[in-house]
Amino acid sequence: MNKYLIPLNQLPIGFFGKVRKLTADGSARRRMLDLGLINDTTVESLRKSPAGDPIAYEIRGAVIALRSEEASKILVESIQQLG
What we know:
The chain is of the alpha+beta class.
């Protein structure tokens, strides 16, 4: 496994990551794919809820909230800010 891959829930707020691998299976994997979380998709970590879970992410122009348990199954490569 690439040492530069981190679970999405560990991506700091305000940072971008590229989806590299999904470790979920079954209906959870299907849901992630339906949300557009496919290889090379850019995801931005936007903000945490006051309790810290879930976290809001921007994926393909849509803002979605994922619980840490779900986001931990999405491995991303942290990238420089786009621009």
